[in-house]
Amino acid sequence: LKEYQGVSPISKAFSLKEGADATVRGWVYRTRSSGGVVFATLRDATGVIQVTVKKGAVSDTQFKDAERALIESSVVVEGKIKDDKRAPGGKELAVTAFKLIHAAEVFPITRDQSPEFLLDVRHLWLRSQHLTNVMKARHWIVHYLREFFDENGFYELAPPMITKAGCEGGSTLFEVDYFGEKAFLTQSGQLYNEAFITALERVFILAPSFRAEKSRTTKHLTEYWHLEEEAAWFDNDDNMRLQEEMVSFVCQTLARKQGGLLAKFRKPEELLVVEPPFPRLSYDDAAKKLKKAGLKFEWGDDFGSPHEDALTRDLDKPLFVYNWPRRSKPFYMAEASDGKHVLNADLLAPRGHGEIIGGSEREWDYARLVKRMKEDKLDFKNYEWYLDLRRYGSVPHSGFGLGIERLVKWMLNLEHIRDAVPFPRVINRAYP
Amino acid sequence: LKEYQGVSPISKAFSLKEGADATVRGWVYRTRSSGGVVFATLRDATGVIQVTVKKGAVSDTQFKDAERALIESSVVVEGKIKDDKRAPGGKELAVTAFKLIHAAEVFPITRDQSPEFLLDVRHLWLRSQHLTNVMKARHWIVHYLREFFDENGFYELAPPMITKAGCEGGSTLFEVDYFGEKAFLTQSGQLYNEAFITALERVFILAPSFRAEKSRTTKHLTEYWHLEEEAAWFDNDDNMRLQEEMVSFVCQTLARKQGGLLAKFRKPEELLVVEPPFPRLSYDDAAKKLKKAGLKFEWGDDFGSPHEDALTRDLDKPLFVYNWPRRSKPFYMAEASDGKHVLNADLLAPRGHGEIIGGSEREWDYARLVKRMKEDKLDFKNYEWYLDLRRYGSVPHSGFGLGIERLVKWMLNLEHIRDAVPFPRVINRAYP
Questions:
Q1: Span B371-400, pLDDT tens digits
Q2: ipTM score of the complex?
Q3: pTM across the whole model
Q4: Shortest alpha-carbon distance between residue B72 and chain A (Å)
Q5: How far is A321 from A303, CA to CA, in rounded Å?
């Protein structure tokens, strides 16, 4: 296999001068032949280049191979760089040797396929330029998120996936048979993060979370990647400040360092304006605003897409909606002094992209936490360890959870969350 | 809560001069009182410092609080730095204000607890200096692994956790009820990685994998973090070279940049000697060696702990054992030209720590792959998408999987793999 080594990435071939020798390898992206010439484009992980194979310029066998190399066939070609203004990128490769590595069957994906079919052949559709670019951008978004936490002295830890304790209510739990015992796939690593801070103070995890969501929306997956942060001694204001700094850092860094990639999705300037502070609206004020705008909404309701859209339609930066009604939020959120609200905030992405982060100060008092757990009728047996965190050196603390795919959807301005992850899992789909 | 902000990490307090004011916060690590003085040590995420609280130097209420602050109580203290050769680190804090944030109940962990009890209170045992240091080191090990891949142009992707296709045989699959359909928790993201390389060429994933291991050993978890790499156009030699460069980079970087932390586990020099090339032994030669050493072993057998131990007991660097019998390895590994072996390698850690990486060239020919899948009696319905990768532009490629906890166990010289992960999952344990 050594013969495949030492070739140039396609992006580098574009920096070569007219007449230079180049060997590239990759997959046939487009191809047609006409009058003894095969005009094709090849793609690799770095780009797409035009290649021309002329009868006579290569052996007869090689020319026949070039003719029968259907799209997605894998090839290695040698040739000379030629400047050509009509070619994408202004250069093409005039082929002197054409090696067909594998002749593809007729590729099943053509134009105008249904979304369901494209999910069936997701393993092939991932080769599309659109999804390839999404996955590159996702790589960088996750990379910059980690960079932000590194620079701020956070430790990354690994939470368990199989647990006894749900965190966000029983209706969306996936059940696992754990050696004959009933267990669940984690909905969140937050409760574990709250244990980690008693040793490491500032921590984050980036791991899968699971929700058996029965609704089909453009914002829900049953399996998603969850960035969860937790910090000892942080109150809800510190928490919001950390979130807006983090989101701004990722937006700015992606726009500055990966501007060409980002430009395939939206104008990079649109993310450059994302900087602290973000606008803040109390839940109570948001409720008034929604009613005033004529939407059906009662105090205590959660937001649906129309509400998120109404609040963020005209915004360029994400919006914090803080201090939600206690009864609408989970047991672990700290109560405000009025007993009716909690010290929390949801961060809504601009232009109706919806919630990307939920965060709060945590209830750190044993007695108040027990009261909330009783109200929520939780099975104490599975939460004894969590209560221990309030028995032995409890400290004020806050944290948040960010859905990676929701962040990617907003940052890249995608229509549907399923395109923010390579193999989306939604109701009735665990294949491929 | 603003009052808790702006204090010094304990590690910084040690750089202050005699007489300087300092405020630190954390948890009571040890405490005793004698003759109107409370002698305590406090820990935070950065270190441990001695504090003395003298009756009269603080208010009476504060002195009483200092007396009743049992270990693991959370506190904020103000005081003056004093040089004291008897104190750990040579400094102590003479307290002028003692604020008890939360008075802990009697901490349940005392000396000489059983391993089972320590697993029951894992959420508290994580606060021990030993586990705190392990988790810090794990953070850095994972950090340097990612750094290695970044520097070599790899993209990180996210594989699905819930799948239809097993990869390593049916006996260790966990079943999930996926909306009434039978699905499994992933054993490996490799097959998905093989799809990713057709667009991005060099990829890795770092995600949980699951094995319903019924055996209790010091090397197995039911849930572990799996670093899996895959690269288009790489043969098994490229694959082994990449592995030895990666493992060497992580060992050297941890020893050089986190030498103080590493020294709590082993001499940093022991990891500095880990550099390419690693010793290599064919499976056939290994089999001869094992027989010669008098161990019970037949050609075709897998290694057990005694075999791994015999082969690596005297080594300072990991050992590649390559080209295993075809019948002992999974269907996706490429056959050697003799038809009896596969083009693969297992990487064994020195001194009996066991296998840390398994890798191979992949079978990229459609017909040969189908033959192997039939031999293994796989249900083709769940692998059609994987076969597509050999129908449309198949390329030679290789990859490997590394168990993060096994790497951490070896690098930190831990006795048991469960201490390499915060909340270990083993047979009959999914709590806490």
A1: 999 999 999 999 999 999 999 999 999 999
A2: 0.97
A3: 0.97
A4: 5
A5: 11
